[in-house]
Write a structure and sequence with these properties.
GO terms for molecular function: glutathione transferase activity. It is built from nine helices and four strands. The protein is of the alpha+beta class. It folds into two domains: about 80 residues, Glutaredoxin (3-Layer(aba) Sandwich); about 130 residues, Up-down Bundle (Glutathione S-transferase Yfyf (Class Pi), Chain A, domain 2), CATH 1.20.1050. A four-stranded mixed sheet has the order 2-1-3-4, covered by helices on one side. Strand 1, helix 1 and strand 2 form a beta-alpha-beta unit. Helix 3 runs antiparallel to helix 4, helix 4 runs antiparallel to helix 5 and helix 6 packs across helix 8. It is globular.
Length: about 240
Amino acid sequence: MSYQLWYWSDIPGRGEFVRLALEAGNIPYRDCAREPDIGSKGLIDDMLRPRQHPPFAPPYLVADGMTLGQTANILYFLGERHGLAPDDVAGRLWVNQLQLTIADIVAEAHDVHHPIATSLYYEDQQTEAKRRASYFRQERIPKYLAYFERVLQDGDGWLAGGARWSYADLSLYHLIFGLLYAFPHRMARIARDYPRVFAVHDRVANLPALQTYLTSPRRLAMGMDLFRHYAELDDGPSGDSLG
């Protein structure tokens, strides 16, 4: 059986967290909106069609007659069904808690470049974005990364402990990947403070199960996405804040 993943056809976005789990778990799926006869219009049509449990927004997964929305909810399902999370209830809830925390910082990263409204262009809120970026770089990124560093200090190199990764490790990888893209100067300066977090990033990047996907055109490039690089929102190369 092949799952149906529905997400926008031209950005990694929140759908990328689900794609990484599907790819690393070797789980068959269709990336429906990226099929040439469907596209973003087909996604909107499918999302709005009558169903018992309609999704609010992509990503959503159609599986076994169910429509599962919200990234963390989808990953909880995949984790339990396909062994991408611990076997016990406490372990699965812990990994879900970590995923929800990742979702929090992802939302904050997005709101750096859209602090007023998603319906406005970045250029319409650039003054507010520069101010928010300064706080995000200096306060929020370190707060979150310090938390994940603390979680990792008593384990075996993975967030849930043990010898195998969970979907939360894949998501932490993509979070760091996105922050490195959006805030390269800031992240370069603080990387040494979070060696365990960056070790997870590197370990996931080298997982054999992900190599085909990570080097294929199916992996969409960063750009006008959750994580966006605007030089004026990053620290200067000398370490002086531009915000």
